[in-house]
Inverse folding.
């Protein structure tokens, strides 16, 4: 079961079942997983609250594009050591007195955790996890961008965030991404988040992408920006040499943490 608890494992199986069937009922869930109808209903309520499915009276519908990534808090254990090193290396690129934007995700959360020694820093973010992490840092001004809450990521997306992003500027953007490919570009798994990601990319003079080696060279369903929209990739030492060289050929700095 990897790092899942038994309850989380069951929720993941139910989510996958809803995605496969596209439309199902509480009774179907109860029968398939040998649960009481009350337990099946609670599972659907939990999955709907995370944004993984859509509920209707007595059942649930699959949401296109949802459920392809584990919720942020579950993903914290994945490539943890790599993410910690990446977070420190990316934080080292931030200077005192700068205004930076930190995106959502577990790797950018590690960046936030290593910013504590900076002075007179302003951090713009749409991530609840980053807000919580930096809330007690007296030398960091936190500016939160609100919008529609994406529960699985503890982040804000949508029109309100995109409007706010048009009104502000930062020295650096530090953002995570689900896939980086030298030809296919920067990609994510969740279509409704794409316009928010595109607005974030345009926010600063320097875009720093933080992504461990499992994101490098892969392709995801939704295109965010060409690979040259990124100025620096901070990754880990397991990234293939050929991949790093392909990015450097495009003028992109590759930092291996």
């Amino acid at each position: 079961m990897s790092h899942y608890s038994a309850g989380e494992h069951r929720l993941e199986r139910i989510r996958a079942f809803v995605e496969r069937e596209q439309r199902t009922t509480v009774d179907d869930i109860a029968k398939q997983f040998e649960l009481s109808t009350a337990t099946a209903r609670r599972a659907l309520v939990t999955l709907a609250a995370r944004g993984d499915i859509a509920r209707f009276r007595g059942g649930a519908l699959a949401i296109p594009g949802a459920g392809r990534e584990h919720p942020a808090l579950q993903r914290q254990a994945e490539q943890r050591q790599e993410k910690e090193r990446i977070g420190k290396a990316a934080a080292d690129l931030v200077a005192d007195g700068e205004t930076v934007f930190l995106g959502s995700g577990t790797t950018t959360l590690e960046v936030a955790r290593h910013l504590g020694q900076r002075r007179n820093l302003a951090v713009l973010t749409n991530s609840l996890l980053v807000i919580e992490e930096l809330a007690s840092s007296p030398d960091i001004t936190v500016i939160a961008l609100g919008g529609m809450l994406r529960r699985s990521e503890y982040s804000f997306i949508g029109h309100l965030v995109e409007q706010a992003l048009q009104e502000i500027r930062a020295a650096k953007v530090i953002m995570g991404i689900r896939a980086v490919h030298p030809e296919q570009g920067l990609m994510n798994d969740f279509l409704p988040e794409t316009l928010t990601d595109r607005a974030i990319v345009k926010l600063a003079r320097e875009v720093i992408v933080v992504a461990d080696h499992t994101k490098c060279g892969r392709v995801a369903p939704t295109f965010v920006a060409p690979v040259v929209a990124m100025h620096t990739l901070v990754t880990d030492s397991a990234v293939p040499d050929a991949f790093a060289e392909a990015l450097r050929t495009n003028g992109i700095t590759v930092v291996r943490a």
User: Anything to note?
Assistant: The mean pLDDT is 89.
